[in-house]
């Protein structure tokens, strides 16, 4: 059956059997507009955050943005930005350039540490209408966000010799494991895989695994297994459908999430966010390496899909599920129809053309 025929059948069925999600009963006052801190970021960041703003306005979503211009080459996050996020509890962020070397700290890391955003979540999945090498990919990568190799504990012992410390604690390992299993439980996921290198780093990664096992014992309905990170990389590119939820220390999770995103079709449409006990920042899930792509910026052809889907995650986080469903459905329809795609997805559309197509598909 051709794609056109499938679309016709789907439209006929939806017309004959209209569907409505289960009623969400809000508490009084839940519809009040919520402030969200907005950091457009560097490079293509303003392009894709503007896409989100247009869609939110068209949906009349109950959110409004407090905009702050932050650049990746700043030495620190401006105090007023941190205060805004602490007040609003939620932030939407475009990509920030991370300096390579030179002793300048990553603002992304500063934000995570200052707000204790200890859990990073990236959802990597197949989208209907976008052909990939593997089908049935639906992986959620949850990584610890505040320690490990990213603790930033480095110093020069003597000229020409640098020491970088990997820090793993029981407290941080246990809470990221709890978050992963809680996520799996709340989202009807069946399996959690802990990714590690405890065969070599027996104390550090051994402590991480010990914490995961303790938490796993409290969730008997969820299957738990462990996988060494190098074997995990091979399994990801050969049989990605075997994975469900993955929980990892910081560095491994960064690599695994980007690999999974590439397998599922690319980083341009993988949503994600960083969350802690009190605050959350939503952004493109996998690597925002194209943030400094001047050609995309000049041509205005950056892919806004990842941030649009991340903003749908944000709407659910804010308890606005119907708005999230409308946005996500519109984006998926645009991808499935295949008429309007940016270059990374095999098309040649501009950012604005993708936005216009999403707006046209909003219900």
Automatic annotation (TrEMBL):
Cellular compartments per GO CC: mitochondrion
Domain Isopropylmalate dehydrogenase-like: 35-358
Gene Ontology molecular functions: isocitrate dehydrogenase (NAD+) activity; metal ion binding
InterPro entries named in the record: Isocitrate_DH_NAD, IsoPropMal-DH-like_dom
Keywords of this entry: Magnesium, Manganese, Metal-binding, Mitochondrion, NAD, Oxidoreductase, Transit peptide, Tricarboxylic acid cycle
Pfam families named among the record's database cross-references: Iso_dh (PF00180)
Gene Ontology terms: biological process: isocitrate metabolic process; tricarboxylic acid cycle
Subcellular location: Mitochondrion
Family according to the record: Belongs to the isocitrate and isopropylmalate dehydrogenases family.
Functional note: Performs an essential role in the oxidative function of the citric acid cycle.
Protein name according to UniProt: Isopropylmalate dehydrogenase-like domain-containing protein
Source species: Salvia splendens
